[in-house]
Design goal:
Chain lengths: 114, 114
């Protein structure tokens, strides 16, 4: 079974702190994604990566950065956390090049910024 | 650009009743289409997907969906709902040339009455 794990289920941080959210997948997938999920807004793509050290902005990259130094690990960084970044963050991975391949999701990290 | 609309934010059905969740997509060619389910506090899990062939697709947990190109729809159905089906359901469309990215709808929350 594909497993995508996220470092924390719940996280509470203060405004202005630098926040790291870690995601690890164990199926050698090329593609990895970070989404945020807010009520009524569905899933919005923050960043995705299709290879080590490669990244592309998604729909809402402002205030976020990412790092992918190893194939299995994709980190989301909030440079200076703000209260409007309080949200559920979901990581996903998928295999490149296969027709119709779906994304596999982690359990999510619920981040609260005070 | 691709997009997905789930017209129903919230649906309530009685246990044992039939279910249909609506999904309309916008995409210039034949898309990849997915339905995911998210149980409370969990990540998303794939229910089923369409990328070619038979337009009626069977998934896990007794769900099915039908791709109707003329209506740009991919509605999810289940003949008899169980209490454990209460969850949030997301329709997603993936472009065939988009490096594995998918666009998600805003989701439909299903409540099951006993």
């Amino acid at each position: 079974d594909v497993k995508v794990t996220q470092s924390s289920r719940y996280l509470v941080k203060r405004t202005g702190e630098k926040v790291f959210l870690e995601c690890v997948q164990d199926m050698d997938h090329e593609n990895m994604f970070w989404y945020r999920q807010d009520p009524g807004l569905g899933l919005r793509l923050i960043y995705f990566s299709y290879d080590v050290k490669m990244k592309e902005k998604g729909d809402i990259p402002e205030g976020y950065s990412v790092s992918r130094e190893k194939k299995e690990r994709f980190s989301l960084i909030l440079e200076s956390a703000s209260t409007n970044q309080t949200s559920m963050y979901l990581c996903a991975s998928s295999q490149q090049g296969r027709v119709g391949d779906e994304q596999f999701f982690g359990p999510g990290t619920r981040l609260t910024v005070l | 650009a691709q997009s997905v609309t789930q017209p129903d934010i919230h649906i309530t059905v009685s246990e044992g009743a039939s279910l249909e969740l609506r999904c309309n997509y916008s995409y210039g060619a034949t898309p990849y289409l997915f339905w995911y389910v998210q149980s409370p506090g969990q990540g998303l899990q794939l229910l089923l997907k369409y990328f070619s062939g038979d337009t009626l697709v069977q998934g896990i947990k007794g769900f099915e969906a039908e791709f109707k190109r003329s209506q740009s729809s991919f509605n999810l159905r289940k003949p008899s709902v169980h209490w454990s089906d209460a969850a949030e359901y997301f329709c997603a469309v993936g472009a065939r040339t988009n490096a594995g990215k998918s666009t998600f709808g805003d989701g439909t929350t299903l409540t099951v009455k006993p």
